[in-house]
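Good morning,

Attaching, inline, the backbone tokens for the sequence recovery test we're adding to the shared suite. The designed sequence is right after.
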């Protein structure tokens, strides 16, 4: 077991882990109160992997994660109140309330975001590392992802390029033993994930993800190799999430005894106990760290509650990165007047009417939605496109159908009788 660092470092590690734990617990409560929308993936139990990694990174280094990254942003220095505001969908959130739990992002802290697509962050990490190499910067990109992402095509492609171009990148797989609800033995033929990049020339190593000091040492060496020798590496950190895959996970795939066994290895409790027994920290400092976490999270909730929601007239902002000169852009052809896709706020009136047509259902009485193929679009004055049995009708027939529908029942019945007599 590695020696403990100095008292100041130990206190910072403990305080940061306690803050993330307290934040995640409160995020879960706020989600149950419907304050936080969308999906919610908590990292309770994985604090040592997060804090151990970020504690040895430099300010100029990049960090990119997946969709379980509240703690990653906080560990990189993002204020908890801004992360909580993002969960609440408020304007003071890290992404202006537009990203939510899965898309925390703070470029100032060089935390390059969480991504909802499994393995989607891997090629982006390679791109960040390539940019640093191209510009001659002394920065390393750390890419953290789950065990399930090691099975994606993006994984192999990214490992190949990282090795081929000797990119300054460290890959760290947070192996919490389950890809969503599927155990690693059932989703990966190679369960030693540290070996998965060897075929591409990238060495791997396993570390104890529940021990913040072990993670610090492993990541520090990986950063050194990337920075000084331009050698990408793969670390596999064994960790465990005490909550389900998401807040909606019933957790039917694992036994309660398994969770209880891993709780005996709680990264915060074991580290606090170790620091006290070694005389590096006292019980007073441990209590102080916990109280500071409580105060910070309470302030974060209050801040998020007070932050306003984004104004509705901003819904079309920041959908695209608009550059000058223009370059490639999307084309929106929802109206007779096509417009640039990245300029949604300047769309023609006809396109805006179509884009917002769904709002028309808000005031309608409940009932089955119309079938556009038979009844036409749900727009006032629209004509039928096909007959009752799927045969096409022309505009005149569509207009006649609407006129017939407007007739009283007895008049319409008389017309049907007359048509039948004509046919005979």
């Amino acid at each position: 077991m590695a020696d403990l660092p100095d008292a100041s470092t130990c206190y910072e590690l403990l305080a940061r882990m306690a803050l993330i734990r307290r934040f995640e617990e409160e995020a879960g409560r706020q989600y149950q109160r419907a304050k936080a929308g969308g999906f919610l993936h908590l990292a309770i139990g994985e604090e040592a992997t997060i804090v151990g990694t970020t504690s040895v990174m430099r300010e100029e280094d990049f960090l990119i994660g997946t969709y379980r990254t509240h703690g990653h942003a906080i560990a990189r220095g993002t204020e908890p109140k801004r992360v909580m505001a993002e969960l609440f969908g408020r304007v003071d959130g890290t992404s202006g309330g537009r990203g939510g739990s899965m898309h925390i992002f703070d470029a100032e802290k060089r935390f390059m975001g969480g991504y909802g697509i499994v393995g989607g962050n891997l090629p982006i990490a390679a791109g960040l590392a390539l940019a640093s190499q191209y510009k001659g910067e002394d920065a390393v990109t750390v890419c953290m992802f789950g065990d399930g992402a090691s099975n994606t095509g993006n994984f192999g492609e990214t490992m190949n390029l990282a090795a081929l171009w000797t990119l300054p990148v460290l890959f760290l797989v947070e192996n919490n033993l389950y890809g969503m609800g599927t155990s690693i033995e059932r989703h990966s033929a190679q369960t030693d994930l540290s070996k998965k990049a060897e075929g591409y020339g990238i060495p791997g190593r396993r570390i104890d993800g529940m021990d913040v000091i072990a993670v610090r040492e492993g990541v520090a060496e990986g950063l050194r190799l990337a920075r000084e020798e331009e050698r990408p590496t793969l670390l596999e950190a064994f960790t465990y999430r005490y909550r389900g895959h998401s807040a909606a996970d019933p957790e039917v795939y694992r036994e309660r005894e398994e969770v209880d066994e891993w709780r005996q290895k709680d990264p915060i409790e074991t580290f606090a106990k170790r620091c006290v027994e070694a005389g590096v920290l006292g019980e007073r400092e441990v209590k102080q760290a916990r109280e500071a976490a409580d105060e910070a999270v309470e302030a974060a909730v209050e801040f998020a509650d007070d932050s306003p929601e984004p104004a509705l007239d901003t819904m079309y902002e920041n959908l695209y990165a608009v550059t000058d000169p223009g370059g490639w852009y999307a084309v929106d052809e929802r109206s007779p007047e096509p417009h640039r896709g990245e300029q949604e706020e300047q769309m023609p009136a006809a396109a805006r009417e179509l884009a917002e047509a769904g709002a028309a259902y808000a005031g309608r009485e409940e009932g089955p939605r119309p079938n556009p193929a038979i009844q036409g679009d749900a727009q006032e004055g629209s004509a039928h496109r096909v007959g009752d049995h799927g045969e096409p009708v022309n505009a005149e027939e569509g207009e006649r159908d609407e006129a017939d529908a407007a007739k009283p029942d007895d008049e319409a019945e008389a017309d049907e009788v007359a048509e039948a007599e004509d046919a005979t």
